[in-house]
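Researcher: Next entry in the queue.
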Amino acid sequence: MEPRFAPFSENVTLLGGGELAEGTVSELLTLAPNLVACDGAAAHALALGIRPARVIGDLDSLEDTTRAALDPATVFEIAEQDSTDFDKALRTTEAPLILGAGFMGGRLDHELACYNALVRRPERRCILVGRDDVVFHSPGPLALDLAPGSRVSLFPMAAVTLAATGLEWSFDRLDLAPWGRVGTSNRAVADRVEILPDGPGLLVILPRPALGAAMAALTPGQDHDVPSAKARPGAR
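Model: Structure for this entry, 236 residues:
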């Protein structure tokens, strides 16, 4: 039986076992103070001196020494093999916003599976944070406060029709599909970019310094003070 957890009242940092830029986890924990680790990523958390509030997955990557160092009450096995550890953690974690680190820049098949999970779990507001990019599923009409010139890429994981303003190539109606036209390499020309998809399935890809704008768009009314790219440890 799949475990059911009490929701977190504050944002969650979700940690995977993929590529991590220096300082990413400590930065995200200032924005999302509850740490949930996917399976073997718990070892990375412990190496940083951080004990996860939960460890979730099929636990095939959780070494015995790591498990022994964890509170058994925080370790949860979901044994089924029909989904990834990221999907298992995403679907069982309720929080205002989830920031995922360690899910981009490693194995491409793992990364693509994460994007699939973002679209399949639209009830979870989650931003994946990589070294160069942030990626999230658009929950519906979206308003982004971006610096003019910021890269804005729109990638469909399903057939979707949308309108967009504030972009160099804005449009009243554009049909996108993974087997057809995509909307990559556009850029902001105004302080506010508005995107209006007609349904689910649209991934929004922004440069890493736009994390604060992405967080604000997904949690309106909250202030997100995110360090600039120059101020971030390990930023490139």
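Model: The helical segments are 24-31, 41-47, 64-68, 85-92, 108-120, 211-218.
Researcher: Noted, moving on.
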